[in-house]
Design goal:
Helix content: 40-55%
Strand content: 15-25%
Bound molecules: pyridoxal-5'-phosphate
Number of strands: 15
Distance between the termini: 50 Å
Number of helices: 19
Length: about 450
């Protein structure tokens, strides 16, 4: 075992291919269903929204998909990211556990999101697209897309969930600095937005609704605009596997292997990207790492949702996906972890949860901020509210080790810094943060009207 604190790789270690877990799943993922025909969708159904290369990646069963050299070239701006042993946190907790974190906050916009924004913009550019649309919750994804589209000379329209637009004005400024056009969602620009505003002029918005607006603009553009999604889809999770692949090498350098890996889940992309290469080992029966997905009690898709076919967006315009869901009409409480307020979850993450390869827990936002502050005081980095959910559970596991005396290796994904989230920290210190528990009855109600997909 090495006694280093930071495990750093060189540029030559940036992965040359993304790892596609679909090649190693014991059975195929449930098909994506067209809501009109109730039949599995084909590439033509997705073509108005995505470039063909991304559609191919979405359904590919190839184990490795080569990363284009121009994309690796942009990755060089921040990759490989460090794996850091949190020695000072271990000491502060008095735990015998070894705690490591993979730090994605070193990317130019401060999170893991550019790992997929860059290839998405690249493939769109390659296929002649001139403009893109997208949604953003916390503003992290929008910032990443704004940077990537700027690199490739693409115009970008961002629909930002209204509550985040108000909570995080500087994320909006950042997107504008890269040349993006940002609109608070719900907006008057789309039918989906106008319908919601007609019913509730004060609607705080939701990720599901912002997706509907961005999709509507692309789908009705006559082919001049395409759409980019920051999470959930298979190709997005695929791109994020650069995180986990680097981690494998870094744990080899450390001479350790994680017993427990923890990540937050909004749509599931940072968690999946972090764990997938380790899941590969578990599926092959070589390792028995525990993978813990952490979600807010205010948006508990895995822990309280149902594994059924649902729409990925509020206006029910995109195809039906089998996932753990709270119902696409879900309007979340305005908790500060904006990126975790989504009603559904990535189909790959759902499949792994359903087959018990991974576990999930839900946590309240006050204990999450308490953990974030404990971490910051020990390690010097203020985490974004989203990965602070993972920190809370990593600390809980480390404290269990303190009780049992076990020397477990615990790793978590610090997928973003929190320097644009200071209003959230302000609210926490002023004791203005309420805790929310999403009521089960609401989920039953929201799921009652879903279309039944034949088995
Ligand atoms: C910093 C950060 N972490 C996590 C998430 C959640 O998304 P995902 O589960 O796809 O990683 C977001 C989404 O906006 C985010 O900004």
């Amino acid at each position: 075992m090495s006694e280093q604190t930071r495990y750093l790789l060189g540029e030559k270690d940036i992965p040359k291919a993304w790892y596609n877990v679909q090649a190693d799943l014991p059975s195929p993922l449930p098909p994506v269903i067209h809501p009109g025909t109730m039949q599995p969708i084909g590439p033509a159904d997705l073509a108005p929204l995505f470039p063909m290369e991304l559609i191919k990646q979405e359904v590919s069963q190839e184990r490795y998909i080569e990363i284009p050299e121009p994309v690796r070239d942009v990755y060089r701006l921040w990759r490989p990211t460090p794996l850091i042993r949190a020695r000072r946190l271990e000491e502060a907790l008095g735990t015998p556990a070894h705690i490591y974190y993979k730090y994605e906050g070193v990317s130019p916009v401060g999170s893991h999101k550019p790992n997929t924004a860059v290839p998405q913009a690249f493939y769109n550019k390659q296929e002649g697209v001139r403009a893109m649309t997208t949604e953003t919750g916390a503003g992290q994804w929008g910032s990443a897309m704004a940077m990537a589209c700027n690199f490739y000379g693409l115009d970008l329209e961002v629909y930002m969930v209204k509550v985040s637009y108000q909570q995080k004005p500087y994320r909006r400024s950042m997107m504008e600095a890269f040349g993006a056009n940002v609109t608070a969602s719900p907006s008057e620009k789309t039918k989906a937005g106008r319908d919601v505003l007609a019913q509730d002029p004060k609607s705080p918005g939701s990720l599901g609704l912002a997706i509907s607006e961005a999709v509507e603009v692309a789908a009705t553009s006559g082919g001049t605009k395409k759409y980019g999604l920051g999470s959930v889809l298979n190709h997005v999770l695929l791109h994020q596997t650069v995180i986990g692949q680097e981690c494998v090498k870094q744990f080899e350098m450390a001479g350790e292997y994680p017993d427990i890996m923890v990540g937050c889940i909004g749509g599931g992309s940072s968690f999946a990207g972090f764990i997938m290469p380790f899941v590969q080992e578990k599926l092959a029966g070589k390792k028995s790492t525990r993978f813990i997905a952490v979600e807010p009690t205010a948006a508990p898709s895995l822990t309280k949702g149902k594994y059924v076919y649902d729409f990925g967006d509020q206006a029910a315009t995109i195809p039906l996906v089998k996932m753990y869901t709270l119902g696409h009409s879900f309007i979340p409480a305005p908790i500060h972890a904006g990126g975790l307020r989504y009603h559904g979850m990535a189909p790959i993450v759902c499949y792994l949860y359903d087959t018990k390869v991974i576990e999930a827990v839900a946590v309240q936002q006050n204990p999450v901020f308490e953990a974030a502050v404990t971490f910051a005081r020990a390690e010097g980095i203020l985490p974004a509210p989203e990965p602070a959910h993972a920190i809370k559970v990593a600390i809980d596991e480390a404290l269990k080790c303190k009780q049992t005396g076990q020397k477990k290796v615990i790793a978590f994904n610090l997928c973003g810094h929190g320097y644009f989230d200071m209003a959230a920290y302000d609210d926490y210190f002023a004791k203005r943060l309420p805790d929310f528990e999403y009521p089960t009855a609401e989920i039953e109600k929201a799921l009652a009207g879903l279309p039944q997909v034949p088995a």
